[in-house]
């Protein structure tokens, strides 16, 4: 049976005993959505098994994995957004990262005892603070509904609607959406533009856009993914995003901006369409798969080609890292898990890592995986602080 063959290939791949011919067969399976989903569902099982097994190639571990795959009936569907077109690239990177992460698992030696405090560090959730024009702060959390004359929220999304007679006024009323550390949120603006906000981010935007005028919002800090409603659907009005020292002009496109306060650069990655980047000193037009990097100290602007999936995977529930320093990775994770990280072993800060981590994983699972790359000897969790040895 094909499913039985696929299960055996998974085991061989992880056990590093797969042949070149079998690897080709394995990759052909992954072009099928059903088998690709099956393989991804295995990953979570492998994390659980890894905590209890020193050597993955024991018969008990193999049998436990096979039973998990056979009984797994459903895989949670991701939001239907632009990322489906990058599924193949994500699968290839996933294969590479798993091979790297799980190698030499049996030879791992603990130099420091793992210590975990009683306080559990949970993954981030959908949550934000909505600030109304009158200064009132409204917490938005899952399970809590909120309504105004212009917007509705189910605690996971905030949706603005055009109201009759509201777009002809000459005055603009602004709201602010602030996502804390350990949070994320999705908002639909009144022109149908969608924005996904990452942890520790703040967006300023009009409650409703004025007809005939440029639609303008401001990413005050943090990271956001924009899917802009085309100008043809909005009386041909342009759309602009302010972010620190840069201004972006678009007509209808998808792009990601990362502009955190604790970073020295603003990163803008284009997924579709074209955007114009300017900062008063320089001006560049980006094409798909290009990223602009603006130095916030001197205004220098550079454009490079990037793998888009690596830059925007956070929206679909993943963190994909390709040869990233461990220090940079832990900065990303500290925002999502709302924690502090201390490198006891400073030499490990600049070690390069390639891998895919899932936002729903516990921090213990993430640290276990990093530990088994032999980048760190061990770790401690003390309240909301991670110490890496």
Helix content: 25-40%
Instruction: Count every helix, treating DSSP H or I runs of 4 or more residues as helices.
Output: 8
Sequence stretches where pLDDT stays below 50 over 5 or more residues: 47-58, 72-112
Average pLDDT number: 80
- What is the alpha-carbon Rg in Å? 23 Å
- The strand line-up of the biggest sheet is 2-7-10-11-9-8
What structural class do you assign from the helix and strand content? alpha+beta
Strand content: 25-35%
Strand tally is: 24
Report the span from N to C terminus.
Answer: 46 Å
The largest β sheet comes out as: 6 strands, mixed, barrel
Write a structural description.
The chain is an alpha+beta fold and 389 residues long. Helix content is 25%, strand content 33%. It contains 8 helices and 24 strands. It has helices at 2-14, 20-29, 33-52, 59-71, 87-102, 308-312, 326-337, 363-371, and strands at residues 115-116, 125-131, 137-141, 146-147, 151-153, 157-160, 174-179, 183-188, 194-197, 201-206, 215-227, 239-243, 246-250, 254-259, 265-272, 275-278, 283-286, 290-295, 301-305, 318-325, 340-343, 352-358, 379-382, 385-388. The strands form 3 sheets. It has a 6-stranded mixed beta barrel with strand order 2-7-10-11-9-8. A hairpin with a 5-residue loop joins strand 18 (290-295) and strand 19. It is globular and about 65 Å long.
């Amino acid at each position: 049976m094909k499913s039985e063959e696929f299960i055996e290939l998974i085991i061989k791949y992880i056990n590093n005993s797969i042949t070149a011919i079998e690897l080709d067969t394995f990759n052909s399976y992954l072009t099928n959505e059903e088998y690709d989903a099956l393989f991804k569902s295995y990953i979570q099982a492998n994390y659980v098994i890894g905590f209890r097994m020193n050597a993955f190639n024991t018969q008990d571990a193999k049998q436990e994995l096979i039973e998990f795959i056979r009984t797994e009936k459903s895989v949670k569907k991701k939001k239907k957004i632009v990322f489906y077109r990058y599924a193949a690239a994500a699968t290839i990177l996933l294969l590479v990262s798993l091979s790297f992460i799980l190698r030499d698992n049996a030879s791992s030696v603990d130099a420091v005892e793992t210590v975990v405090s009683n306080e559990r560090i949970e993954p981030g959730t959908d949550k934000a603070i909505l600030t109304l024009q009158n200064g009132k702060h409204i917490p938005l959390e899952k399970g809590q509904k909120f309504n105004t004359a212009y917007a509705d929220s189910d605690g996971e999304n905030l949706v603005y609607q055009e109201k009759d007679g509201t777009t002809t006024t000459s005055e603009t009323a602004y709201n602010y959406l602030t996502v804390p550390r350990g949070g994320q949120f999705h908002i639909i603006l009144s022109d149908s533009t969608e924005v996904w906000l990452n942890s520790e981010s703040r967006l300023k935007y009009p409650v409703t856009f004025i007809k005939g005028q440029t639609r303008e919002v401001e990413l005050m800090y943090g990271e956001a993914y924009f899917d802009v409603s085309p100008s043809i659907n909005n009386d041909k009005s342009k759309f602009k995003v302010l972010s620190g020292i840069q201004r972006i002009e678009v007509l209808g496109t998808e792009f990601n901006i990362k502009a955190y306060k604790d970073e020295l650069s603003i990163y803008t990655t284009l997924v579709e369409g074209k955007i114009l980047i300017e900062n008063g000193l320089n001006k560049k037009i980006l094409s798909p798969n290009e990223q602009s990097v603006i130095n916030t100290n001197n205004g220098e602007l550079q454009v490079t080609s990037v793998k888009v999936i690596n830059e925007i995977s956070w929206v679909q529930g993943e963190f994909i890292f390709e040869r990233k320093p461990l220090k940079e990775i832990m900065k990303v994770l500290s925002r999502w898990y709302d924690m502090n990280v201390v490198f006891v072993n400073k030499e490990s800060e600049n070690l390069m890592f390639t891998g895919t981590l899932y936002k729903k994983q516990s921090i213990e699972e993430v640290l276990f995986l990093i530990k088994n790359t032999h980048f760190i000897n061990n770790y401690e969790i003390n309240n909301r602080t991670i110490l890496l040895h």
